[in-house]
Request: fold
Amino acid sequence: DERTVEKAVAAASALPAVEICDETGELAERVPPPQDPAVAANIATLRDRLATARIEVYAGHAKDVMPELRALATESDGIAYAPLAAEAHLVLGLAAIGAAEHEAAVPALERAYREGLAGRHDPVAADAAIKLANLLGDVQGKVPEGRRWLADAEALVRRTGSAHELVAWHHNVT
Reply:
C-alpha cells in the first residue's frame, strides 16, 4: 500500500549493518538459549513472528501491529529467556512510539532495557536507552530523565564497541 511504499527507505535503513554478522564475540556473551528443544523451537517461532511484526512497524503499520506485539511480549515473558523478552519489549516500544502511544512506549522500553541487561543483550539494552532518551528528553521535554537514559545508552554503546547503528543513533540524539 501507499504507506508501506512511503516507509520503505526508513525500513531498509533500520536493518542492522551486514558487519554485525561478523561480530560473534557479542553473541557468545549473551545468556545461552534454553537446552530444551521444545522451548528452543518456541523461541525460534516467537522470533520469526517478532521479525514479521518489526517489518510492519518499520513499514508504517505500528498501530495495526500493536495487539500482536503485546501478545508476543506476554508470550516472551512466559518463556523467561531474557534476550527474547528484551527484543519483544523493544519492538513493542518502537511500535508504541510509531502509533503515538508514548505512555505505553516508556514501560515497554524500560522493560526492554532491563531484560537486555539481564540477558547480556547489550545492543537491545542500548537501543532501548537511546529511544527512551529521545522520547523522554526530546519528545516529552523531560530533559533530566532523557539525559540519565542517554548516559546509560552511552555506556552501553561504548561497551558494545562496534555496533555502528547504535553509535549513529546515539550521535543523532546528542
